[in-house]
Every structure is written in C-alpha cells, then in structure tokens.
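pinning this so it doesn't scroll away 📌
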Amino acid sequence: MKTGALIVAAGMSTRMKQTKQIMKMGNYTMIERIVHCFYEAGVNDVAIVLGYKAEEIKEVLKDCPVTFLYNEDYANTQMFDSVIIGLNYWKDRCDRVLFCPVDASAFSMETLLELLKHEEEWVYPFCNGKIGHPILIGNHLLPDILAYQGERGLKGALDSLGISPVIMHVSDAGSVMDADTPEDYKKMREYLQQKE
C-alpha cells in the first residue's frame, strides 16, 4: 500500500506575525520536523503546498527530496484550497494520503507509526477530547473531497462523506496541538522540549 504525504504550508501566519513554517521546534523547523518524522516512519513520498515565503521555505528544505506544489493565490484563499491542490496531485499516485498542516508538528513518532498500521479509509488520532494530526485518508475518498463545495474545509468535506472515521485514541497531547498564535507556539515548543 503506497502512502503519499501531504503537508500544507502556504499560509501567511497572520496571527503568529512570523513565518511559522520555518520557526524552530526543537532541533528542526516546524516543516522539517514533519518531513523528517514522515521519512523516519517510511513515508518517503512527500508533497508540500507552498505559497507565502515559498523560496525561504524551499531553502530550509533544500536537502529533502520533496515535491513542491504552489498555491499562487495564497493571500486570498483558505487552507482547504491548498488541501485541494495537494489532493489533486495525489489522487492518481497513491493508495492513501497522510495529511498534516505545517503548524501541527508536535505529534510523536509513536502516534505516527500506530496511525500507519491502519488500513481503514479515514483515521485520525484523538486525545483530550480533540481530533489530532496527522490523519489518513483513503485514495478512493478523494474525488468526493475534491468536489466538496461546503463550509468547514477538509473537516466539512470528510463529514459530508457519510462514513464514520476510525478514532485512534492516543495519549499524545502533541498530536492535538497547533501553532496559530505565539502563545500556542510557546506551549508546543515547551511540550516538545519536555518530551525529547
């Protein structure tokens, strides 16, 4: 079963007021941490949707064999538009997609490896009452997701499919963290420092 990975990293980080894609998270930047975790778990086919500060981010990843995709209209679109670009790329290239936003980079290797053992069509980690990342999406779900015109982005698209996800209960608080604000980033970085 071929797993393609998708990282969306096109946003302008307006609440963070910095280019959060390349902010440090331990020894790596946020985006490097996700890429290295994926590689370490055996997921070597990684596509990244870029937009804002694309050249800076590419420079950070210059030694990583990843595929770069582009949301040219990143300033006027939502994250789901970048997701669509990435899923369109993967729809005929893999059996399932491992999806992660760039600011959800604190998940553990244990969570990732356990997730990859699953073969169901829609699986996500769940901790402390929250849905986490990364998530697995079966390839045959992609046409309906790509055709979705409703609200709430990828979550709305998945919920519209009429199927029940496999909820993978984990004790990994990092899997449900994201870095939307400087305060979020500080908590995430401190959490990882304690874990690593």
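📌 and the second one:
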Amino acid sequence: TTLFRSGTSLVTRQPVQQRIGDRLPNTVLLMTSAYLVILPVSFALGVFSALRRYTLADTVLTTLAFVVYSTPIFLSGLGLIMIFSVTFRKLGLPYLPIAGMGPPGGDRTLLTLLPYMVLPVMSLAFIYIAAYMRYVRASVLEVMNQDYVRTARAKGVSERRILLVHILKNAALPLITIVGLDLPFLVGGAIVTESIFAWPGMGMLFIESLDRADYPVLMGILMLIAILVVISQLVTDLLYSVLDPRVRLS
C-alpha cells in the first residue's frame, strides 16, 4: 500500500516518474519519425486519389489501402522482417537490424540509430497511411462538391488556386481530428510494434508492467494518456479555429 501510494514501481522500486521518463523519449522519437512519413504521404495519396476519382490509379490505391489496413500489424511487421532482414541477408544484400535501438554495448548516435528505426517506422507508417488516405480522399471529394468551390470556378479562379486555397485547407480538418484522437494513444506506446522490434518504449513498458502486475506504473501510463487526450483535443480545437474561418473561439 505504501509503495502504491508513493508512486513507486512494485518491481524495480524506482519512482513511476523515472520509469516512464526513461521510456517516453524512445516512444516519442519513434512516433515523431513515423508521423513525419505518415502525414505528408497519406495526404498526398488521398488528394491524388480524389482528383482522379474512379480512374485506374484511384482503384489501385483504394484496393491497396483496404488490403494494408486489413492486415494485422503483427503480420506486416513480421513480413517486413522476413523481407528486409532475413531474405536480404540470405541474398548477401545489405539488411536491416530487427531489434533494439542500437548495437549492444555501443554508443547510441544518429547514424547507429537510423537503421534500427526503419522497420518499426515502416510497420507503423503502412497501416496509418492506408487509414488516413481514405479519410483525406473522402474529405476532398466532399469539399469539391461544396457551393463555395463551384462559385470559385464560376468566377474564373484557376484550378490550382481552388485546390490550394479552398479544397486542401478544408479537407485537412477531418484529418486533424483523427490525428488528434490517435496521438495520445500512440504516445502511450505502439504495443505490438514495440514488442515485435524490441523497441524499449512505452508500449514495452506497459506490457512488462502488465505481466508483472506493476499497478503503479500501469496507472501512471494511463494517467499520462488521459492528460494527453485532454491536451490534444484542446490543440485540435485551436487548429480548427485557425484553418476554418467559420469556427471562432468565444
């Protein structure tokens, strides 16, 4: 009871803040890198697919998005390992490491860290790109049918300006909402991805604490996620007021 109330791990006897503080930067690094890939690629593919609606390219992208999104993340992670680590190594090609954040006992630098980040980032990026691309496509198609877009065309505004000024900004609003809902839980750790690639982040900490019934650490992680949910929703509302002139904060 004393350990629980004092916020001390029941397993390591370390403060919960220290346990979380040791792992949180690793998860933030992984998620930030993944989202630097996810957001621009998913937005670009979604816009491309919407502007070429019902063409062969749109059909192929939509089909691939459904297939990738339906694939369990542990299966895609193991598939990436089989291709880029096992198969490449057998063929004598440069292969990617599959576990950890660097060579054992070595100094961790950006150059040593990058190869270890490729597979987990790809594993996360594929499924989220497939999901976000569908949201962007649907949003762009909806905005293209709005009255203000038709009015802009009637006034002779160029298609490029209509796309950049009227369509893309408004089409980004649903994506901001989805990202705002996802980010707090991703900071809590991509449990499956971190487990597959032995990435020492919040997801691994959650699994370890769950296996050992380390309740203070579990409660600390859940409390962090709850706080981030509130903050992310506040930031999302503020971004809405910036991107959409029809929304005003009172």
